[in-house]
Design a protein that fits this description.
heterodimer; A: alpha/beta; eight-stranded parallel beta barrel; globular; B: 16 strands
Chain lengths: 278, 259
């Protein structure tokens, strides 16, 4: 069903965790994406938030994000792997399926592809034991893996069933020189673990894709690539999930009614794009 | 991937069974012609042996936490493989993404490195010592059994790992990429071909049921009389082995026999 395939990144909701989860459920979501900042809040500790999440009826499909992974000197990678273990333990406790991982944005030496393959495979192994899949997402401003072709190469060479690709419509559009159709057709659909959908205002600036100006995609905040991306993904046989991936900053100060309406509009918009395939 | 690396297993050293009811488990082992040959110097742990097969019976309190049935259950908790250099193997495995486990040794006890595998079970790494030294000498006080019946079982052929279907390929990749097992007819064969691991999908898809679910032992036709109380009337034609029946309650794993 379309509802099961469209999930909400609860980070868009500018509230305490309990209220985020309650509102997500109220708005009809059974599955969510959650981030570090949703669980590490100033008002209560991580264990408390993790318990709240465990007791919620919502399923956690994805957790973002293990940032700045891959492409570092080895002593930094030891630290990153320990960080990954902490993330994976937390995810195992809350029943999350997928840990999203992105590459380093600055490298101190020329990135070694073979070493990155081994590091990604090692992360996949860690995830296997904890029952968590690893979703790799390239970043356009990374000095190592900044496009989907290289990301596919990396995942293919790592050759581990616990690895998958995360597609972000914003990063995808800015990463590729090729037409969107050519690019999507080059991605094996079974490799895709999640598609994140956002709309942004400043579409000329690549850097601004990490600044919290990501908004919920709706027809009003039209991101032209989304309908075509979904059409191509579905045509290619993608059966996974789409995440309504936005930050909370644009919605802070808005009433709960307005925020709820925006989320409902976004859900209806994406659902309509998926409808032929329901 | 090299077949001669530090992480290449070279035989199965022992299987460890965690138990909340050691009396029942030990009675079963006796009926299957295992005999107690060692008692741990400081823990509720015993060593049972039959021929070259070693079974550790672990009734320690912290081991019971592993059990689904913490009142009267027994489950296979670990297997130990021999490697050329356990320390190097352990370091290499950690570097490649394994989760390390401690055997929680006491003072002056053997520290056996291990990695976590399916369902919280452990794969221990044992140095491939020569015949003059046994790893059991340090931690176990030897016990001479009252009798020493002929072995019924020749070797441990395989262990079955129950896996949630969506994790099947992931676990296959872990054993092939970390430990150099090879895939053959849906079995994972150890690099030295001395034993195998069989991945079985859990029907109800419940991740909490993942773990080591069965042990398969080979025997000779003339030993079947000893197993008679436990043998079913039929052999599974497809697999060629028999799953022992009439096991005591609480034994939460299957014992399969291959002739």
């Amino acid at each position: 069903m379309a509802e099961d395939r469209i999930i909400l990144n609860v980070g868009v909701l500018p509230y305490r965790l309990e209220k985020k989860l309650a509102l997500a459920e109220q708005l009809g979501f059974g599955v969510i994406e959650i981030g570090n900042t949703d669980l590490t809040t100033p008002d209560q500790n991580l264990q408390t938030n993790a318990s709240i999440l465990q007791n919620s009826a919502l399923k956690v499909a994805a957790f973002h994000e293990l940032k700045d992974f891959l492409g570092h000197p080895s002593h930094l990678m030891d630290y990153k792997m320990n960080l990954a273990k902490s993330n994976l333990r937390l995810m195992e406790n809350v029943g999350a399926d997928l840990l999203i991982v992105s590459p380093a944005t600055e490298n101190y030496s020329k990135p070694d592809l073979q070493r990155m393959v081994e590091e990604l495979r090692a992360l996949a192994m860690l995830g296997t034991v904890r029952g968590v899949r690893i979703g790799f997402k390239p970043l356009p401003w990374s000095e190592s893996i900044n496009n989907y072709q290289d990301a596919i190469t990396l995942i293919t060479q790592a050759n581990n069933a616990n690895l998958c690709l995360v597609i972000d419509n914003i990063a995808l559009r800015h990463c590729s020189d090729e037409g969107l159709a050519t690019l999507i057709r080059a991605i094996p659909m079974e490799m895709v673990g999640l598609v994140q959908l956002s709309a942004i205002h400043n579409q000329d600036s690549v850097q601004h894709t990490t600044i919290p100006t990501r908004m919920l995609p709706t027809k009003a905040d039209h991101e032209p690539v989304i309908p075509e991306l979904i059409r191509l993904m579905e045509q290619q046989g993608y059966q996974g999930r789409y995440s309504l991936y936005a930050q909370s900053i644009p919605y802070r100060g808005c009433s709960e009614e307005i925020v709820s309406a925006e989320i409902s509009n976004s859900l209806a918009y994406v659902k309509a794009l998926l409808t032929p395939n329901v | 991937m090299t077949q001669n690396s530090a992480t290449t297993p070279k035989g199965l050293e022992f299987v460890e069974i965690a138990t909340a009811d050691p009396a029942t488990l030990e009675q079963l082992l006796q009926q299957l012609n295992f005999r107690m040959v060692g008692v741990h110097r400081s823990k509720s742990v015993k060593l049972y042996r039959q021929g070259t097969l070693n079974v550790i019976v672990n009734a320690e309190a912290d081991c019971k936490l592993f059990l689904k049935n913490q009142v009267s259950g027994s489950q296979i908790k670990a297997l130990a493989v021999r490697v050329d250099n356990a320390k190097l193997a352990y370091e290499e495995l950690l570097h490649k993404g394994a989760w390390g486990c401690s055997s929680s040794p006491g003072a002056m006890e053997l520290n056996i490195p291990g990695i976590e595998i399916t369902g919280g079970a452990v794969l221990y790494l044992i140095n491939n010592y020569n015949e003059r030294f046994s790893i059991y000498d340090i931690d176990f006080t030897p016990v001479t059994p009252q009798d020493q019946p002929s072995p019924v079982f020749n070797k441990i052929e395989s262990l079955s790992l129950s896996i949630a279907p969506q994790h099947y390929k992931q676990w296959q990749d872990l054993f092939t990429q970390l430990l150099h097992f090879s895939v053959q007819n849906e079995k994972l064969i150890s690099p030295d071909k001395s034993f195998s691991l069989i991945l079985k999908s859990i029907e109800d898809n419940n991740i909490t049921d993942e773990g080591i679910s069965a042990i398969r032992l080979s025997t000779q036709k003339d030993q079947l009389d000893t197993l008679e109380p436990f043998l079913p009337d039929y052999t599974d034609n497809k697999t060629g082995f028999r799953t022992l029946k009439n096991l005591p309650e609480g034994i939460d794993f299957s014992i399969e026999v291959e002739v």
